[in-house]
Structure formats: structure tokens, C-alpha cells
């Protein structure tokens, strides 16, 4: 079943934010906003929930720390003990200070890669996936607000268009999404 979606295009991000505030104050639910850069302060206006990416970063970093510790303990102490400068590596705890830079770097590496992969998976922007951007101009200098008629049942299509015209919109487009 097709769903009607209204795309309102703006020239300026501040005009879009003011328009979104007006619409939300009237009870209109904004589904999404497409812009060439992140718009500071738009998330609370349109009701986007805060992400848990920070928690995931902590867990990925913790995994990196554990893997680095286990790896160094195995490689440097048990598998191939090294005698550097006449100081043999007999226990991990005796040499833990020498392993701190490696542990730190591996923690940051795992956290960064884990967050990047999680970001791409959650946004469905992996290489080869079709783009969901409604208008290619939003990658250049335009801003688009998406309103779904199914989310705004209390308003007719004409009422939504009238409210949009009061927000400084430059162009309005309607599409049926399957």
C-alpha cells in the first residue's frame, strides 16, 4: 500500500528550523529532515531520540582493552617471551606499564571502528545500498522536511499544505512511497 509523503524544501537551515517549530507547535509530526550538513538543534524540535552510540563506544572500547590485554599476555609472556635489555618478561603484571600504549591504541581502534560500522548499519548507508535521499539537491545547498500523511491523520492534505506555506517553504513535492 502506497503512503503519501510531502517533501518541503527550504533554502536556509534557520528558516527550516523556524518552520519545524511552527509545525510541531500546531501538532504536526515531522518524519525526517534531509540536509547537506548536520543542523544544530533540529533533533529536539522534530523529536529525534538521543542515540546510544556512546554506550556502544564504551562497549567497543572495553572489548578492545580486553583483546589487547589477552593478546599481549599471550604473545609477549607465554608464546614468545622476549628478553629485552636483560629484563625477561616472566609475568604480565611486572610489565604492564610497557603495555599501556598498546592497550590505549587498540582500545581507540576498536571503539572507532565499532562506532563507524554501527553508524553505517543503523543509518542503512553501507556501500551498495540504495539512497533514501528524496532530492539530490539536499547534498548541495537545499534542506528538505519530510511529512508523512499517515503520521498526521488529524490534518487533511490541504491543511498541511496551508501550514507549510506559512513556514517559508520554497518548493513542495508529494510522492507515493511503497
UniProtKB/TrEMBL annotation:
Q: Does the keyword Disulfide bond apply?
A: no
Keywords (alphabetical) are:
Membrane, Transmembrane, Transmembrane helix
**A Pfam family in this protein?**
ActD
Q: Does the keyword Cytoplasm apply?
A: no
Transmembrane feature ranges: 57-77, 97-122
* UniProt xrefs under InterPro entries: ActD
Give the matching PANTHER family. LIPOPROTEIN-RELATED, QUINOL:CYTOCHROME C OXIDOREDUCTASE MEMBRANE PROTEIN
The protein's name is: Quinol:cytochrome c oxidoreductase membrane protein
Q: Which organism's genome codes for this protein?
A: Fluviicola taffensis (strain DSM 16823 / NCIMB 13979 / RW262)
Amino acid at each position: 500500500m502506497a503512503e503519501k509523503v510531502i517533501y518541503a524544501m527550504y533554502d536556509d537551515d534557520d528558516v527550516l528550523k523556524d518552520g519545524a517549530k511552527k509545525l510541531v507547535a500546531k501538532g504536526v509530526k515531522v518524519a525526517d529532515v534531509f540536509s547537506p550538513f548536520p543542523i544544530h538543534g533540529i533533533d529536539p524540535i522534530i523529536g529525534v531520540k538521543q542515540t546510544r552510540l556512546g554506550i556502544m563506544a564504551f562497549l567497543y572500547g572495553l572489548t578492545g582493552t580486553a583483546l589487547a590485554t589477552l593478546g599481549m599476555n599471550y604473545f609477549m609472556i607465554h608464546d614468545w617471551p622476549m628478553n629485552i635489555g636483560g629484563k625477561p618478561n616472566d609475568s604480565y603484571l611486572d610489565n604492564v606499564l610497557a603495555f599501556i600504549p598498546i592497550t590505549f591504541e587498540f582500545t581507540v581502534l576498536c571503539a572507532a571502528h565499532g562506532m563507524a560500522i554501527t553508524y553505517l548499519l543503523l543509518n542503512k548507508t553501507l556501500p551498495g545500498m540504495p539512497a533514501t535521499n528524496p532530492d539530490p539537491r539536499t547534498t548541495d545547498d537545499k534542506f528538505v522536511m519530510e511529512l508523512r500523511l499517515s503520521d498526521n491523520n488529524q490534518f487533511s492534505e490541504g491543511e498541511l499544505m496551508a501550514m507549510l506555506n506559512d513556514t517559508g517553504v520554497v518548493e513542495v513535492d508529494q510522492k507515493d512511497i511503497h
